[in-house]
């Protein structure tokens, strides 16, 4: 996919990740009010990979740098269910490689978006997120996104890049550059169930921007870029220096701006 991703040998990974802190990327403007966001994810962002109830209660669990940053920037709440989404009505929902969602949660999210809600979906068909946990451990992040019913309802199919590998690649999305692995793409599908949904594909099919009823969805065919191990050292200390973080910030701000315009 020329212009959007470039595969590099692992020996050049150190050079590649420096692209996340290029001078051409300016920091997103701070939002005047903290957006209220509900986050659903299988990635070890909230408490770290091996957190137990004991370590959480003892204050020993360490959130990922991007989650600490999100807590500072936004009114962020991690959730396991969207059962009360309509009544809580956050400014935004972020699904970042979420665990298998109940059909009721998918239906609630679809109804909320169609009524005017905003959602950012990061769904990876080939997640390459190293884990020390044994195979089968429910705390491991999902290797492949499980949102096919929802995406199909919106007229999309997530597919893996059969030529892609575990090698680090450089993505340039929305003017932001960052390292990742295992990037997928979206393809449109004809679905009678996709009534009231219209999606435009950009960045060689890696990003889908959808109008669904009165709401909006931005869907990205990757989630590995949230892994701090792919960030340059400077960004690990200061996440706002990461092109990956700036990219998500830009999606949040764009979704909020559109919502404000319709009020």
Walk me through what this model shows.
With 263 residues, this protein is α/β, with parallel strands linked by helices. The chain is 25% helix and 23% strand. It is built from 8 helices and 12 strands. The chain has a 7-stranded mixed beta sheet with strand order 3-2-4-5-12-11-10, with helices on both faces. Strand 11 and strand 12 form a beta hairpin. The longest helix is centred in the last third of the chain and has 19 residues. The termini are far apart.
Helix/strand-derived category reads alpha/beta
> How many helices?
8
Biggest pleated-sheet summary: 7 strands, mixed
Strand order of the largest sheet: 3-2-4-5-12-11-10
Counting DSSP E segments of at least 2 residues, the number of strands comes to 12
Residues in helix, %? 10-25%
Draw up the topology in text.
Elements: E1 5-7, H1 13-17, E2 36-41, H2 53-57, H3 65-73, E3 75-78, H4 85-88, E4 92-96, H5 103-114, E5 118-122, H6 148-153, E6 156-160, E7 169-173, E8 176-180, E9 184-188, E10 197-202, E11 207-212, E12 215-220, H7 233-237, H8 243-261
Parallel strand pairs: 2-3, 2-4, 4-5, 5-12
Antiparallel strand pairs: 1-7, 6-9, 7-8, 10-11, 11-12
